[in-house]
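step=encode ok
step=design start
structure_in=
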């Protein structure tokens, strides 16, 4: 089933959630200036899905159309359609759409539970399919929570037990979990939050090897929103001062689990190291592949902003600056191309299509490098004004407004207000959580490099060189 963005917002308004922003427990979270932008971005995933057939495939599970982000990919075409959906969402909102980790969770729990049942004769896959049916029938927005707070990183999880979400009790009706997940994109605005392991665990660490889903009726869950300069800016108000007021930057939170009881129907991996590793690996790869497509969408947005800035400044004919945009386009398409390559060269895993592991990790590395380069080009094109400009409020001030209007004007084809809107949008790209989100979201580059070192067949490359050089060793 496909619902509208408004239907999703209405459903969300009915949830009672404990959410803290800047030290206060807030009421009416749906209208809060720091939360509403994430809700708008998620609502957009509903509205765009119904506009294109590729974004709303037919699900055999429920016999209806479903959102592409709640679908288990069966082949490369499915995955590429998801990449295109995410690229368009990123371009049109200039931010995260929050449902991507939920989609990765669905696509990684599916094969892991199948493997688990085949190995142990359990019924985790049946339980998962029944939950997926509910997700698809109600068109739930799902997010994914992996990152534990971890504490002292030099210690193993058992020495820092509280810093990893873990099982504290096993009951007839379910498991009781405790701990916290940090950096969680949009969890406060989701219908379902999948909680997955943060890393591969070893023998003796089974209490951390769990995967489950949290829904609004679960008691003992609290959310603490991030509080950066950009969040302060959103609270400041105005119509365009925050640059991307409608959709915001990458809104994350810390999720606290204070002895939360999760019913068995929503526990999909329980203290099983092999299944845990299966979920984790497929999630990481899926997220890095999709993340490269999202980065292409973000770069699309920055290209649009750069081109408008050139025009608003009267610089659109300067070859050296136009060349910067050409470079941005090249990086954008290369990043997207890696994601498509990873999807095309993927593989079937227990009836689900997974992206190519080596290429998806390369997408992370190239995507991060590309994102940085694009941001630098954007900053070069924009000049210093995104971090020095007066505010929207100065423009409206009766005493200085006319002077701001006069001195901030550039090309006759743009009003001062239009130029200032573009400037504030570039400020948003350069100074919000986007840069660090690009670097660390979906796992840090260091994690991708570890994967690449593990997966690459360096020997065959050495052999090729030895053969070419007649080195007999
Ligand atoms: C905007 C944003 C959105 C995010 N959204 C989500 C989300 O929705 N869900 C989710 O689960 N997570 C999310 N993340 C978390 C992201 O996956 C983590 O930031 C990332 O995995 C790195 O973990 P960390 O920040 O805790 O770094 P830390 O663990 O503090 O590590 C710091 C640095 O050291 C490196 N490092 C640490 N230990 C080792 C080691 N043993 N060997 C080599 N290098 C090491 C790390 O790779 C990193 O570069 C998000 C992050 C950001 C910034």
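sequence_out=
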């Amino acid at each position: 089933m496909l619902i509208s963005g408004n239907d999703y917002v209405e459903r969300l308004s009915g949830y009672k959630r404990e959410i803290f922003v800047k030290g206060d427990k807030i009421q009416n979270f749906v209208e809060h200036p720091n939360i509403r932008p994430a809700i708008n971005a998620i609502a957009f995933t509903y509205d765009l899905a119904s506009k294109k057939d590729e974004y709303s495939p037919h699900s055999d599970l429920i016999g209806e159309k479903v959102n592409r982000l709640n679908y288990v990919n069966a082949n490369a075409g499915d995955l590429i359609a998801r990449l295109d959906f995410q690229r368009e969402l990123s371009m049109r909102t200039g931010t995260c759409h929050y449902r991507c980790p939920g989609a990765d969770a669905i696509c990684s729990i599916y094969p892991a539970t199948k493997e688990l049942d085949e190995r142990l004769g359990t019924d985790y896959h049946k339980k998962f399919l029944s939950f997926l049916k509910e997700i698809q029938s109600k068109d739930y927005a799902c997010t994914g929570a992996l990152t534990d707070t971890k504490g002292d990183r030099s210690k193993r999880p058992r020495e820092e037990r509280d810093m990893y979400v873990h099982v504290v009790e096993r009951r007839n009706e379910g498991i009781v979990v405790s701990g916290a997940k940090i950096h969680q994109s949009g969890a406060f605005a989701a219908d379902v939050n999948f909680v997955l392991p943060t890393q591969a665990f070893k023998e003796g660490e089974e209490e951390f090897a769990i995967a489950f889903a949290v829904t609004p009726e679960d008691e003992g869950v609290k959310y603490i929103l991030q509080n950066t300069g950009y969040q302060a800016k959103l609270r400041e108000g105005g119509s365009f001062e925050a640059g991307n007021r409608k959709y915001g930057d990458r809104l994350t939170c810390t999720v606290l689990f204070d002895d939360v009881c999760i019913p068995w129907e929503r526990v999909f991996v329980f203290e099983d190291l092999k299944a845990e590793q299966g979920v984790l690996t497929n999630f990481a790869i899926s997220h890095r592949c999709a993340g490269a497509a999202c980065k292409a969408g973000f770069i699309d947005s920055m290209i649009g902003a750069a081109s408008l800035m050139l025009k608003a400044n009267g610089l659109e004919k300067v070859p050296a600056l136009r060349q910067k945009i050409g470079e941005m386009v090249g990086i954008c398409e290369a990043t997207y191309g890696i994601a498509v390559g990873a999807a095309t060269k993927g593989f079937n895993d227990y009836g689900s299509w997974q992206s190519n592991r080596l290429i998806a990790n390369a997408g992370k590395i190239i995507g991060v490098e590309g994102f940085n380069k694009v941001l630098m080009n954007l900053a070069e094109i924009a000049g210093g004004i995104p971090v020095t400009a007066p505010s929207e409020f100065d423009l409206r001030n009766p005493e200085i407004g006319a002077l701001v209007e006069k001195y901030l004007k550039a090309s006759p084809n743009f009003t001062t207000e239009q130029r200032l809107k573009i400037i504030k949008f570039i400020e948003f790209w350069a100074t919000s959580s986007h840069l660090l989100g690009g670097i660390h979201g979906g796992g840090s580059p260091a994690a991708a490099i570890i994967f690449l070192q593990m997966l690459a067949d360096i020997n065959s490359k050495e052999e090729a060189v030895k053969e070419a050089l007649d080195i007999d060793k």
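step=design ok
step=annotate ok -> Residues 5-277 form a domain with the Butyryl-CoA Dehydrogenase, subunit A; domain 2 fold (CATH 2.40.110.10).
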